[in-house]
Amino acid sequence: MARVLVFDVWSRFAYFRRHYTTTTASSHPFITRSAIEGLVGAICGYSSEDYPGLLWNAQIAISLIKQKDEDKDRITKLPFGVSYTTSDFWTQRVGRYLKSGGGSLEHTPVPRSVEILIEPSYRIYFSSNLNKVLEELSTNLKGHSTYYTPYLGSSNMIANFDLVDDCEFSAHTAKEDEEIRIHSIIPFFTRIPQVKVETGFRYAIEQNIPLHVDKERKPSGYYSAVYSPILGQPILSRGISYSVIHGSKNEVNVVFIPSSSPSAS
Fold it and tell me: Residue 143, SS3?
């Protein structure tokens, strides 16, 4: 069995931009693997050039949970319209601009819709084959100390965190007809995992989520995930590879997010 750190992170707001959006800045419904790597880097004091290499092989799983003392039981997004200023050469009077011999371009306000997550909270399961990383993260989580300000997607969305457990996990593969209740999002690339639909449960799929991001800010690939928009609601799946977290109080089943897609390996 291997060591895993379990910790919660939450904030008033979060924003994990879907990279393919343009005029509408929509957000993924939950934190991405790359954002978790940045969060761990901030807590441990790793620079933006160092943490991509240190965390490349880290094993990371995500559960969507409710914040303490909050009644909200599902993912909540808030869309709102804002205006930003941009220099768009093609909207200017090009002839007058050239005749005047240059100068500054006029700025054109452009309306833009932004979507943010309200009261997000995540349980992160983190493991690494580098003892240095695990020890530094464990020490800072226990002491609730951080080198850089942690945030969820945007620097003005400052996050709080709390260590839940320091325990072990073991890897398993279920038989084709064996049903396993998974307490995390379930990542996949091509084939959608077998999910048993249960009365009163809700399911959703998110696509094109970035995996590990290198120091040049290039993603190693993208993945999709099955998740429940109901916070804390597990998913019953068959024939799945998963890991059992042997916590000090209970055991839960999670699926770790790969650092790269199968085509990249």
Answer: helix
The pTM score is: 0.85
Contacts of 92 (CB under 8 A, 6+ apart): 105, 106
pLDDT (0 to 100) of residue 109: 57
What's the one-letter identity of residue 203?
Y
- The secondary structure of residue 155, as a DSSP letter, is T
Mean pLDDT of the chain: 85
5 vs 62: CA distance, rounded Å: 12
Let me know: does 6 contact 138? Beta carbons within 8 Å. no
Same domain, 143 and 84: no
Please check the confidence at residue 96 and state whether its pLDDT lies above 60: no
- Residues 255 and 232: their CA atoms lie apart, in Å, by 15
The 10s digit of each residue's pLDDT in 31-64 is 999 899 999 999 999 988 888 888 888 999 999 9
User: How many other β-carbons are positioned within 10 Å of the β-carbon of residue 100?
Assistant: 9
Same domain, 6 and 92: no
How many other C-beta atoms lie within 10 A of the C-beta of residue 139? 12
Mean pLDDT of 226-233: 94
pLDDT at 90: 44
157 shares a domain with 102:
no
With a CB cutoff of 8 Å and minimum separation 6, the contacts of 253 are 180, 181, 182, 183, 184, 242, 243, 244, 245
Nearest by Cα to 7 from 121, 120, 123:
123
247 token code pair: 């916590």
Query: What CATH number is given to the structural domain containing 216?
Result: 3.30.70.2660
C-alpha span between 17 and 130 (Å, rounded): 30
